[in-house]
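Quick review question:
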């Protein structure tokens, strides 16, 4: 696409709204925490394959909270914000004179480059990269829905919701029949294996990571109904400026926060109770295709939407945001750089091909390290915001140059 077809470059700092950036900044903490179990390669993992099934009281509490509140609940938040941002970009381009076709071409170029970023991220650092999957999903949903009317977008979201509920129906019937072991095949292969955290050969680790990434990217980009559901709702919400103008949508946001988080946490609770031994269930029930895992996955989008609503309500308070809020929002405006920085700090420190610290940490100490890594990125973003507020993070700068060409300059 020639740069002459783009009406304008990326959004300026003065044009940014607080709520989306605050949500992205907090989201990065949740992502950082939810990825911690992937690095604990020396610990024993149970039937679910996600978290160690051992540890101190602090470790077990950490695992319980993560399964209830974070696992399969953070990526829907990311997907909603991604869909929201796609629509913001499209609307900004068409409002400044670009044709709808040219605006979609811009989105397509951005999606293709996100796949490239994801490939590099997985090759060098992190198998569970999600930028590639969102790049694929943006190509698909951008082509099908971004130029369509609200009714078409909502019909698409309803179809995605129906697919989510259908996927959970076998689990619901298994629970109703008291036959929790009907589904699944325990044990699930530990995520530390497919993420190559314990591989001490860098080349072998890269091969494993890329294999996992290819599956995550293709399955997540083409087949993930929960992702499609929240991304399409992000399309719809962006057209109504729900996050930019939260005061106009208080009723919607309050109901979404209460209902979404309640459903999301209740859906993850049985798997969390089973993991810590408070609920006795067959091992198959918590495996990758098990009944409790399916229920947790189906209710994840509700929690993600609830979290978005909470962040919007916090950002929409009439008082001036404090220094901490502005620092987190500064990271949110550089969310791609922050996301990649997590892996840049984590992988060489924790993986067996690096310093191998992951073999000596537990769930609780890993969570503390994740918080420290996130705080480091918050401080870095706040410093950049203070001295160069119109400059994006390094990853955003590169993506913008590849997407917009010469118009990407701040």
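Suggested answer, residue by residue:
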């Amino acid at each position: 696409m020639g740069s002459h077809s783009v009406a304008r470059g990326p959004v300026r700092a003065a044009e940014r709204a607080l709520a989306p950036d605050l949500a992205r900044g907090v989201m990065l903490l949740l992502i950082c925490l939810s990825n911690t179990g992937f690095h604990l390669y020396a610990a024993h993992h149970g039937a679910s394959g996600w978290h160690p099934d051992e540890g101190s009281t602090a470790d077990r509490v950490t695992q319980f909270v993560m399964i209830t509140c974070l696992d399969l609940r953070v990526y829907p938040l990311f997907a909603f914000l991604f869909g929201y941002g796609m629509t913001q970009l499209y609307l900004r381009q068409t409002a400044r004179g670009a044709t709808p076709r040219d605006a979609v071409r811009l989105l397509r170029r951005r999606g293709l480059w996100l796949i490239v970023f994801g490939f590099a991220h997985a090759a060098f650092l992190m198998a569970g990269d999600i930028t590639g999957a969102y790049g694929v999903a943006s190509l698909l949903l951008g082509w099908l829905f971004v130029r369509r009317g609200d009714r078409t977008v909502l019909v698409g979201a309803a179809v995605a919701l129906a697919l989510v509920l259908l996927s959970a129906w076998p689990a619901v019937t298994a629970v109703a029949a008291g036959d929790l072991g009907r589904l699944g095949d325990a044990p699930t292969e530990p995520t530390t294996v497919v993420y190559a955290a314990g591989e001490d050969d860098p080349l072998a680790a890269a091969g494993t990571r890329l294999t996992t990434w290819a599956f995550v990217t293709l399955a997540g980009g083409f087949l993930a109904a929960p992702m499609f559901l929240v991304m399409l709702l992000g399309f719809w919400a962006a057209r109504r400026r729900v996050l930019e103008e939260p005061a106009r949508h208080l009723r919607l946001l309050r109901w979404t926060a209460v209902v979404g988080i309640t459903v999301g946490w209740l859906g993850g609770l049985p798997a969390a109770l089973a993991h810590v031994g408070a609920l006795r269930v067959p091992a198959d029930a918590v495996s990758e295709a098990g009944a409790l895992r399916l229920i947790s996955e189906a209710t994840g989008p509700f929690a993600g939407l609830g979290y978005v609503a909470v962040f919007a309500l916090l950002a929409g308070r009439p008082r001036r945001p404090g220094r901490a809020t502005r620092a987190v929002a500064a990271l949110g405006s550089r969310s791609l750089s922050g996301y990649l920085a997590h892996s840049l700090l984590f992988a060489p420190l924790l993986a067996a091909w690096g310093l191998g610290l992951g073999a000596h940490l537990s769930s609780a100490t890993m969570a503390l390290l994740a918080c420290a890594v996130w705080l480091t990125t918050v401080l870095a973003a706040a410093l950049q915001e203070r001295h160069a507020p119109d400059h994006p993070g390094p990853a955003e700068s590169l993506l913008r140059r590849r997407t917009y060409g010469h118009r990407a300059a701040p």
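Why it works: Residues 3-408 form one domain. The chain has one domain: 3-408.
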